[in-house]
Amino acid sequence: MPDAVGAIDQGTTSTRFIVFDRHGAILAQAQREHEQIFPRPGWVEHDPREIWRNTHAVMREGLARAGLTPQALAAIGITNQRETALLWDRRTGEPLHNALVWQDTRTDRHVAALARDGGRDRFRAVTGLPLASYFSASKLAWLLDRVDGARAKAEEGDALFGTVDSWLVWNLTGGPQGGLHVTDVTNASRTQLMSLATLDWDEGMLGAFRIPRAVLPRIVCSSGVLGETREPFPGVPIGGILGDQQAALFGQTCFAAGEAKNTYGTGCFALMNTGPQPVASTAGLVTTVAYTCEGHAPAYALEGSIAITGALVQWLRDNLGLIGASSEIEGLARSVEDNGGVYVVPAFSGLYAPHWRDDARGLIIGLTRYANRGHIARACLEATAYQTREVLEAMERDSGMALAELRCDGGMTVNDLLMQFQADILDRPTLRPKISETTALGAAYAAGLATGFWKTLGDLRDNWAVDKRWHPRIAEEERRALFTGWGRAVERSFGWIEEET
Ligand SMILES: Nc1ncnc2c1ncn2[C@@H]1O[C@H](COP(=O)(O)OP(=O)(O)O)[C@@H](O)[C@H]1O
Ligand SMILES: O=P(O)(O)OC[C@H](O)CO
């Protein structure tokens, strides 16, 4: 009798396999990091073969650590970094190029050219998304146009496109020997090729980006059995797929309209469930699919996507050497009392929500002879909290709903200083659940629901409990002064990249 569910969490920096029990508690996990490839400024790639090798390895390691056989798994769920675009050969299974990662800005010019004719919001009504190099469509167009022979192969049906979920499912189910070519509706909603109304590929969007339909996967439900694994062990049902931010919303059990979470990882992604109808954004957010369960109406979400948060901590570590490990940032930031007037705007890939400025670039401002490493570390942490406030304010405007508190998760939520500052700058409590691996948990939930391991959404809600809550402590005057300083710094980051014509 299966008594566990496995989740593959293929993130921007690492791949995890986590085995959960019926209460959503972790039985075992395994994790491997993969290389971040930066061939030029603004370009970010991953090697799809490395990602598949790591997935294969962590699944075996995780299961062994849990002391389970594959038959003990009721299902496997998949969650993944979204938007990252892959193209591979159907016959050989070989990638035609490295994956173009969501942060990659090489298609800025293509996107700007499309925006000249109709503006940045010309595809919002259909796809819910502004024009930005962040989404997959322009990345796929780049692969089709720049990789030798790719377009011809795609038109003949010999090249397959997918986000990371598609690549994993295809390999898990046999690869060139009959692998399934599918993606789930949440991942499809991030390509800028899917209609939010029909939940299918949109002919107009395919035309705008010159994408042949034959290259695209079939769109499936987020929770629903789509096949069985053949690798790395056979016979386990694949019961669900969710893009990682939607998975965290599901794992935080935000099933009712108005419930929201913020995930603090490489970037930050705040999502609010808005119910069975898409809510158009006028405040700079993205409208996206939250999840679909077989036989039920879809749930939509408003999302505030922030490109760089935890990645700024990595940058302090890897590029500046100010800290030796991410965890050291808290001590360094606590070595000073405040930010000393310093702000860091991490516009490394431009700025996403709510600004959507591809022409912005990163800056450190407010420097004086007084400023030291501690102030810079503190300003880096504060940048995450200010960016979060910007997107939550936009979310409240768009949805007309006020958030009483903020459910938080992700790797940065171990940072007590950040969580306290977040509560301070929002003037609302922040809280972290007991099971902090909400992304993997959401994928496990989607898969377990599809196979009857869990019966209802209510069963999942019963598993959720608060671990820690932070209450706002600073005065309104200080809050206003800090946030005003941030707004001025952001303005100065705009327009650094001059558009080439
Ligand atoms: N103590 C810490 N304080 C601040 N940031 C941290 C800390 N520990 C880890 N991080 C950051 O959290 C991120 C990892 O979080 P995770 O949720 O695993 O990200 P992802 O899923 O995007 O790969 C990294 O960018 C890392 O720099
Ligand atoms: O892999 P993460 O956690 O950095 O998430 C990446 C997002 O899905 C990008 O949209």
Write the layout of secondary structure elements.
Layout: E1 4-10, E2 14-20, E3 26-33, E4 45-46, H1 48-66, E5 73-80, E6 86-89, E7 99-100, H2 108-116, H3 124-127, H4 136-146, H5 150-155, E8 159-162, H6 164-172, E9 182-184, H7 185-188, H8 203-209, E10 218-220, E11 223-228, E12 237-243, H9 244-251, E13 260-264, E14 268-275, E15 286-291, E16 299-306, H10 310-318, H11 328-334, E17 343-345, E18 363-365, H12 373-399, E19 406-409, H13 416-426, E20 430-433, H14 438-450, H15 457-462, E21 466-470, H16 476-493
Parallel strand pairs: 1-5, 5-12, 9-10, 13-19, 19-20
Antiparallel strand pairs: 1-2, 2-3, 4-7, 6-8, 11-12, 13-14, 14-16, 15-16, 17-18, 20-21
What oligomeric assembly is this protein in? single chain
Q: Widest sheet: strand order?
A: 15-16-14-13-19-20-21
What is the straight-line distance between the termini? 63 Å
Q: Helix/strand-derived class?
A: alpha/beta
Question: Which term fits the overall shape?
Answer: globular
Mean pLDDT: 95
Uncertain spans, ≥5 residues at pLDDT below 50?
none
Approximately what portion of the residues adopt beta-strand conformation?
15-25%
Largest sheet: 7 strands, mixed
The value of Rg in angstroms is 22 Å
Number of helical segments with 4 or more residues: 16
Helix content: 25-40%
| Secondary structure: number of strands | 21
Ligands bound to this protein structure: adenosine-5'-diphosphate, SN-glycerol-3-phosphate
